[in-house]
Fold each of these.
Amino acid sequence: MATSGSTDFELDIADYIEEAFERCGLEARTGYDLKTARRSLNLVFADWANRGLNRWTIRTTSILLAQGVPIYPAGILTLSVTASANFTVGETITGGTSGATASVTSLPSATSLAITIPDGTFQNAETITGSTSATATTSTAVVDFSDVNATIDLLGAVVRTNAGTTNQSDITVGRVSRDQYLTTPSKNTLARPSQYYVNRQITPSIDIWPTPDSAQQYTLVFDRLYRVQDADSQVNTVEVPFRFYPCLAAGLAYYLALKRAPNRVGLLKQAYEEEFDRAATEDRDRANLSLTPTRDFYYIN
């Protein structure tokens, strides 16, 4: 018999909801049934973030480091302005109306400033003034924090020098705990960064040490776990690879059972945990294992 020849099976949000209700022995009949199911689906995604089960959302991000600036957003953060060319990297900018301040870390385009997490809230159409250059421009939009806020955690980081050349070099920087960073006595030391601390606030930041000097142009390159996109409209698909479909359906059924089918909670929880274990076991890095024999031996008389 001929096979289908297709490999494009995909469930949309409505399909997941229908499957989950059927596992609960129920049917989705009202608009509120769909609303509560979408809410539960987003909570499943939050559960996966806590368990570290979304490696398909890993993003590699690069941030230029500025001399004398020790704290950076854990993602891309820019301020749109009418003109940026005359600003100085590393200087502090201030909003004329809001009084908000931030440091300029790079000039990604002629109409944008890469900035640190602001102290305060920049407003649209306010005057932005540089503390060193005395340059003035006008903001053309409010700062969008969505990319930074969607960062769950960092997996690793390097400091890159001579980026884009044949002499490019990536040097690993070690991650330290909050206590280790807090007790570092010389936070304002200028040198090539060798350590970083992830401050996991609602808007997460990366605190690096030592503070970058001017010896070279440093780029912080890091892998970060990124939040799975929300489940909104029923006609949308979800940002989940094929191998995780069973786990997502089982998780949604369990979450719905907590509200609608308490007599099936135990069964559906067990099914969810089994599907999760299989998915988590499969969702891992694979690498060759090399074993090197040694000729050392001990002679015991």
Amino acid sequence: MFDFPRSLLEFQRRFPDERACAAYLADARWPDGFRCPACDRDKGWELATKAFTWECAGCGKQTSVTAGTVMHGSKVPLVAWFWAAYLMATHSNGISALQVQKQLGLGSYKTAWLLCAKLRRAMVAPDRAPLNGLVEIDETEIPQRSKDDPPEGGLGRSGQGKMLVAGVEVHGHRPGRVRLAPIADFSAASLHAFINANIAAGATAKTDGWSAYPGAPGVTHHPHVVGPMAAHVVLPWAHRLFANLKRWALGVYHGLRRKHLQSYLDEFVFRFNRRNTRHAAFRSLLRIGVTIKHIT
């Protein structure tokens, strides 16, 4: 049996109320049964007097199924959390906070925005593996959504009015996993830091020959100087990734803000890396959400 709904109708049947959602979260958080987060004892019972709360048989600590997760302390119903997670994980282009507010009937845009922001934080698994094998690495620039910055910046590697983003895509006959991150500039320090954080030792980095790449520790540099050749011919998957990112940013969010850039990039990466298993992504999102610490 699949551990995730594969359609809206199946989702509605699977999670009709708070009790069904809480049971799913408890199973995701404690797959081998309840375990106390304070003393690590594996014996406890669900309280009848407190909704979705367990009490440890050893130390007596009471733990809600949402305590310490991205849903910690939220007054939003679990059903709304599940709907938002399902829509964000399975919709091919994602969904904006304004759309979430309207679709779920939330009382304010602020509530919807915070809910989406917390779910984006759960889109990065703490133990995710770095990219390996042959990896395309390139840089791009996208307009930032700000009153003070011009809508269009300079060309090439000029940073005027732009948010600078480094993109990675693993490929063989087709693209594999990707990573995206903002960088301060196109210097060796910035690019090497990105490579060190996202690329496995022993991988081969295929680049456009930019002078800042050589010397990156732990990887084999495979430069392809572009010259008069179109860059997308040398690094086709990286350029397709950037094109999709820019269309998504403008189409769904009408541009990205500098302050929250990484979280939006994480959302794009999460969905891209699960493009062939969108409905299973819902399960991944909730399971990461109950294992990472909550955000205020």
